[in-house]
Design goal:
By secondary structure, the protein is an alpha+beta fold. The chain is 24% helix and 43% strand. The radius of gyration is 14 Å and the shape is globular.
């Protein structure tokens, strides 16, 4: 399956920095990156990184996560303050991750869904 993941995004980090931050192999390349905030107890402003196998978030203010796409169980568009269409909620291994302040939420969601669906298709083929 040949998939084109050419998304225009605010990529400010090269793949080497992404790989270093999350201890990933040199073959794991950034497909897209978006400025956003991770809402746990407090909002942490940072960057959302998407690659062919991972979704990751990094904040200089003390917060990061890196999730294999194959561990995700759901992805939903969400609203903040009941009116702002600027959030995505991800569930993986029973943990919910809420990303907000996404100016390009629909683009980030489409990219994430394309990557996730592609990963699921690969997993399905290898299980058969």
């Amino acid at each position: 399956m040949d998939v084109n993941f050419s998304y225009i995004a605010e990529v400010d980090c090269d793949s080497a920095e992404f790989q270093r931050r999350f201890n990933l192999p040199p073959t794991e390349l950034v497909q897209a990156a978006y400025s956003c905030a991770y809402s746990k107890v407090i909002l942490r402003q940072g960057r959302l990184y998407l690659s062919k196998h991972y979704i990751a978030f990094y904040s200089r203010f003390g917060g990061k996560f890196c999730i294999p796409l194959m561990h995700m169980s759901s992805v939903q568009k969400k609203r903040t303050a009941f009116v702002l269409d600027n959030a995505i909620q991800i569930t993986a291994c029973g943990t919910t991750y809420f990303l907000t302040s996404l100016l390009l939420r629909d683009q980030a969601f489409k990219c994430l869904m394309d990557l996730w669906n592609h990963q699921q298709a690969i997993c399905s083929c290898t299980e058969s």
